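Ex. 9. Protein: Phosphate ABC transporter substrate-binding protein PstS.
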Amino acid sequence: MSTRRPAYWGRTRVAVALLGVALIATGVFGAAGALPAQAVGTVHAPLVGSGSTWSANALQAWIRNVWANYQWKITYSESGSTQGRNDFAQGTADFGVSEIPYGIANSQEADARPSRGFAYMPIVAGGTAFMYNLEIGGRRVTNLRLSGDTIAKIFTGTITTWDDAAIKADNPALALPAIPIVPVVRSDGSGATAQVSIWLRQEHTQQWDAYCGKVGRPFVNDHCGVTSNYPVAPGSGFVSRSGSNGVAGYVAQSHAVGAITFVEYSYALNSGFPVAKVLNSSGYYTEPTAQNVAVALLSAHINEDITSPDYLTQNLSDVYTSGDPRTYPLSSYSYIILPTQLESGFTENKGLTLADFGAYFLCEGQNDAETLGYSPLPINLVQAGQKQIERIPGGNPVIKGTIDCNNPTFSPDGSNKLANEAPYPADCDRQGATQCTAGTGGAKDTPTQAAGDDQAAAGAGTGSGTGTTAGGGTAGGDSSVVQADAVPVLVDATPQSIPVAPVGILPSLAMLGAGGGMLAFAAVPPLLGKRSRRSLFPTPTRGSPR
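Predicted structure tokens for Phosphate ABC transporter substrate-binding protein PstS:
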């Protein structure tokens, strides 16, 4: 009997080998060459997202991580929350990201819910901070304190110079300069703007109403409305810039002394500039640290009606007025807007990627939140979010429990560990005649002391003492130490959409030279198997701030 193989056998072997090569090159084998347990035809398709710049630093870090570890290609455009909601509604984005939901109450802008199926899922928490650039005697101030009333008057044009009596009352230790205040606001539709305007409408109604009348904005239900587009009166001295990078970048420039903006805390950390300590209802000036935000959000009211189109959205009324002395008043969280139906170009393969991405950042990703300038989501929002990603068509996420979900807020009793361990503010941060000399988070200046400067420092009240580094540590210092005039780390004032760099391609190409044909033969049988639940995610590469 002849042992000759059919003529097509050689061609089949070549075809199978080429298939293996193609699978390796396209990342189906994964970053380390391991084949995910999924059936032929189910692949992690590329995704396009759009929206918030407030949460963009966290998102971009997570996107880099999942590309490096799993070759999931996700492109996110930092277009602002309003554009993100619009892009999702119009079907030009697979997912949107926003600090506020569609159709928010008392809004000045029409923002109807989209016709396509969607759900909200919390993505990351944080504090909207007031980053500033202020000098006294050529040295940067890092210990500025501001009450909510003072902030409201600054951003409505009532207080216009840094030596105003209200700012002096907040800062008894500072000899404030008589220079103009330059409020820097967003020129694009922004979730941060919406959050600030919600706070202004509720907590500082008189100032906000007067400002609306000044800039010609309509009232909604007898008061100035909530807006994502900050109104600016011509000749007011306000500066408008697009994106979080835009406003933070403007303030960080050397010629922008006197400028102040509202921006997610992460951007102040990245640019090395201080943020104001904000007075809370307990009479303490606090910073938007991860722990203070975690404490504040214990007072948030979450829509827990699973039948509501606004399920998981937040009401921050009691956050603003929380009586806990550790609370940072302008704390909140951001949402990812998920598709729940196969429409507008959304496919099951895209659903596979999005659900797995959500499962990743609800657990592993939250572990990096504090380093990136955010606050990790607490257990109740993580568990609710895990239910939401199960609604994504085509998804097959690995849902982790409290033991294996690597989230620093989790504790055995279900309480928020981060909030439980949050330190109480120092007595010098209490409203009154004394003032802490320690610099605030975001200020990366290294304290220095020049000979003979002790009295000058004490007299100028430069916010001497320490600047907290990006890592969160605070060096010791006293009122005789003065801040060096540090060179700011400038942030590009132009908002960017950062494409995902194909960092995983080189390992895959190296594998080709190490026996791609052999791997192809080994891989073909599992490809024909039934799709199954994947194993737990490997520990990802830590993302770094952009």
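Check your answer against this statement. Confidence is low (pLDDT under 50) at residues 1-9, 11-39, 444-546.
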